[in-house]
């Protein structure tokens, strides 16, 4: 007999949602701060100013623009810029709580971090998206300058303004997100299924198990797919 595809799809949806906004589970006793890779963990000698860096996750990719001298500009959901302009506080590594609240309130920052903090231990691909844009690639210095001009607080949207939109605007002149398009298609497939109510319940239960019982973890997991479907 065939297995019910809805629970599997719901589990996949939850995983994709968390990865899309770069939620990274923290070890117990970490105090809410993710561990940082040791300085020099990555060989930056092969990176050039203006390069587009990709860090593949399980299902999604995080993007940034290399600025030189071990610095990467990248867009991260973050609630803190909505409450303070203190750069020293904002520049601290974004915790999961700050990140999730940033997604909910649609606030973010385009920040500059070390390659180690940006990549978070993942492997890095360089200019891998160039093959998709062919003759649209801007000059490396132009890409870096665009990224530097945008550093600071910004609005956040899973659909219209995420880390991929940021880098494609900087390097190719057009803000697009291929992985968001794929994510929306998955969401629509689940929502349109006649058992979508069950799928939503399973997503909510999975979020409680994975992230704990709290409105900021369970409600977005249920409502965000619906909003994505409406916006699509």
Automatic annotation (TrEMBL):
Enzyme class: transferase
Transmembrane residue ranges: 197-230
GO cellular component: endoplasmic reticulum membrane; late endosome; perinuclear region of cytoplasm; rough endoplasmic reticulum
Top-rank lineage group of the source organism: Eukaryota
Residues of the signal peptide: 1-28
Gene Ontology biological process terms from the UniProt entry: retinol metabolic process; visual perception; vitamin A metabolic process
Catalytic function, reaction form: 1,2-didodecanoyl-sn-glycero-3-phosphocholine + all-trans-retinol--[retinol-binding protein] = 2-dodecanoyl-sn-glycero-3-phosphocholine + all-trans-retinyl dodecanoate + apo--[retinol-binding protein]; 1,2-diheptanoyl-sn-glycero-3-phosphocholine + all-trans-retinol--[retinol-binding protein] = all-trans-retinyl heptanoate + 2-heptanoyl-sn-glycero-3-phosphocholine + apo--[retinol-binding protein]; all-trans-retinol--[retinol-binding protein] + 1,2-dihexadecanoyl-sn-glycero-3-phosphocholine = apo--[retinol-binding protein] + all-trans-retinyl hexadecanoate + 2-hexadecanoyl-sn-glycero-3-phosphocholine; 1,2-dioctanoyl-sn-glycero-3-phosphocholine + all-trans-retinol--[retinol-binding protein] = 2-octanoyl-sn-glycero-3-phosphocholine + all-trans-retinyl octanoate + apo--[retinol-binding protein]
Enzyme Commission number: 2.3.1.135
Pathway: Cofactor metabolism; retinol metabolism
Domain annotation LRAT: ranges: 52-179
Topology versus the membrane: Single-pass membrane protein
Sorted UniProt keywords: Acyltransferase, Cytoplasm, Endoplasmic reticulum, Endosome, Lipid metabolism, Membrane, Sensory transduction, Signal, Transferase, Transmembrane, Transmembrane helix, Vision
Molecular-function GO term, any one: phosphatidylcholine-retinol O-acyltransferase activity
Pfam families the record matches: LRAT (PF04970)
Compartments, as annotated in UniProt: Cytoplasm, Perinuclear region; Endoplasmic reticulum membrane; Late endosome; Rough endoplasmic reticulum
Active site: 163 (acyl-thioester intermediate)
Family of this protein: Belongs to the H-rev107 family.
Protein purpose: Transfers the acyl group from the sn-1 position of phosphatidylcholine to all-trans retinol, producing all-trans retinyl esters. Retinyl esters are storage forms of vitamin A. LRAT plays a critical role in vision. It provides the all-trans retinyl ester substrates for the isomerohydrolase which processes the esters into 11-cis-retinol in the retinal pigment epithelium; due to a membrane-associated alcohol dehydrogenase, 11 cis-retinol is oxidized and converted into 11-cis-retinaldehyde which is the chromophore for rhodopsin and the cone photopigments.
Descriptive protein name: Lecithin retinol acyltransferase
Species this chain originates from: Eudyptula minor (Little blue penguin)
Gene name tied to this protein: LRAT
